[in-house]
Write a structure and sequence with these properties.
0% strand; mainly alpha
Length: 81
């Protein structure tokens, strides 16, 4: 999609290229949101990894599970005891 946006921008369609890149950004965000929600709901990390097209579940786990654990640690620091 990036190569296509670059090509149409070179051809003078700047607004259309920007729109294409914006759509790409939004769909990528939705992809990550969906995967995060599936993991939080207890989905099998191997199946989620396969659906995302990752080479292995370890990679998926390093991106999604570790970031979720970091978020929880950060939120925990703000709690009053």
């Amino acid at each position: 999609m990036i190569a296509t946006a670059d090509r149409i921008e070179r051809e003078g369609f700047t607004d259309e290229a920007k729109q294409m890149l914006a759509i790409r950004s939004e769909t990528h965000y939705l992809r990550h949101t969906g995967a995060s929600q599936a993991i939080e709901a207890g989905g099998d990390i191997r199946h989620i990894s396969e659906e995302l097209g990752h080479a292995n579940a370890t990679f998926t786990e390093s991106i999604y599970v570790n970031s979720e654990q970091a978020r929880r640690r950060t939120e925990g620091r703000r709690r009053l005891i």
